[in-house]
TrEMBL record:
GO terms for biological process: CTP biosynthetic process; GTP biosynthetic process; UTP biosynthetic process. The lineage of its organism: Bacteria, Pseudomonadati, Planctomycetota, Planctomycetia, Pirellulales. It catalyses: a ribonucleoside 5'-diphosphate + ATP = a ribonucleoside 5'-triphosphate + ADP; a 2'-deoxyribonucleoside 5'-diphosphate + ATP = a 2'-deoxyribonucleoside 5'-triphosphate + ADP. This is Nucleoside diphosphate kinase. Keywords: ATP-binding, Cytoplasm, Kinase, Magnesium, Metal-binding, Nucleotide metabolism, Nucleotide-binding, Phosphoprotein, Transferase. It holds the Pfam family NDK. Its cofactor is Mg(2+). Signal peptide: none annotated. SUPFAM superfamilies: Nucleoside diphosphate kinase, NDK. It comes from the Bacteria. The gene is ndk. PANTHER family: NUCLEOSIDE DIPHOSPHATE KINASE. ATP binds at residues 9, 85, 91, 102, 112.
Length: 152
């Protein structure tokens, strides 16, 4: 089992697509273990996107992600980190395959609706940036036996 950080970015919130995005992750069988609506500060943006801070496009990314509320969530599931990345598609909505979230809803390389951690180290680091350990709900979902075999 893995946990990964999802952010429904300001474009997603403003376009009233939160419900549809949450539905897609729920339909896949992922389990939401934490969720909150927040405003990302410039400081948090720099920590979250530390690998991109020196890039030419970082200032516009920072104004975008700090420009409106964001829904931060942690989802859990088998191979959840890669499963979520595959559901998002390529970074640019213009390149992302149809059927992916970005491919279906975005025509931008910046306003691509949803963030997902890109590996186990990033997931651990990013979950800790947005949530205290006690904010993660530990209850096992009752549906699990209808989502996968007992030995998976
Ligand atoms: O989110 P992902 O891991 O697919 O992409 P990234 O290359 O790690 O970039 C992080 C975020 O920066 C993207 O999701 C875009 O919102 C934004 N970005 C941008 O504004 N301009 C670019 N040329 C590339 C990425
Ligand atoms: Mg990335």
């Amino acid at each position: 089992m893995q946990r990964t950080l999802i952010l429904l970015k300001p474009d997603c919130v403003q376009r009233r697509l939160m419900g549809r995005m949450i539905t897609r992750f729920e339909e896949k069988g992922l389990n939401f273990v934490a969720m909150k609506l927040i405003r990302i500060t410039p400081e948090l943006a720099k920590q979250h996107y530390a690998e991109h801070v020196s890039k030419g496009w970082y200032p516009t990314l920072e104004s975008f992600v700090t420009g409106g509320p964001v829904l931060a969530a942690v989802v859990e599931g088998l191979e959840a980190i890669q499963v979520v990345r595959d559901m998002l598609g390529a970074t640019s909505g213009l390149k992302a395959a149809p059927g992916t979230i970005r491919g279906d809803f975005s025509s931008s390389q910046q306003m691509n609706l949803v963030h997902g951690s890109d590996g186990p180290d990033a997931a651990k680091r990013e979950i800790a940036l947005y949530f205290k350990p006690e904010e993660l709900i530990e209850d096992a979902p009752t549906l699990t036996k209808w989502l996968r075999a007992a030995d998976e």
